[in-house]
Specification:
This protein is of the alpha/beta class. It has three helices and eight strands.
Length: 129
């Protein structure tokens, strides 16, 4: 990962994406990802019980919060099937973290714009439905 001004770590760029696949700068290829300033990892839905109906879970965002994100992008999938409960957005906003909920295509575009500006952005990226 590249470092920004004063040694602040930047978030990895999303280099490409398609149905069920993404390529992340410095992390390689995978299906779904959690990304934050200085790193990221594959997003394993079974870790906290995430699912299309259950939606994003509080545990899913803890790593992002702990990494010092000032903005977190929560993608709902390419067909907007993944729920993002209002409680998740409220939890972020209560911590003065900007929450952006978007379909995956728009979310990736927005995320890469924030990365290019050197913002402390993170996100959850779902590459299918």
């Amino acid at each position: 990962m590249a470092n920004g001004e004063a040694g602040v770590k930047t978030s990895p760029r999303i280099l490409s994406y398609g149905w069920g696949k993404m390529e992340i700068e410095g992390l390689g290829r995978g299906k779904d990802f959690k990304l934050w300033p200085g790193g990221g990892r594959p997003w394993d839905w079974s870790e906290y019980g995430t699912g299309h109906r259950a939606g994003v879970q509080p545990g899913d965002i803890e790593e992002l919060i702990d990494s010092g994100c000032t903005t977190i992008i929560l993608t709902t999938g390419r067909m907007r099937r993944l729920r993002v409960p209002r409680e998740i957005v409220d939890q972020l906003e209560d911590r003065n973290i900007k929450a952006i909920v978007a379909d995956t295509r728009k979310g990736i575009s927005t995320y890469n714009e924030y990365v290019a500006r050197g913002e402390r952005v993170g996100g959850l990226f779902h590459s299918t439905c």
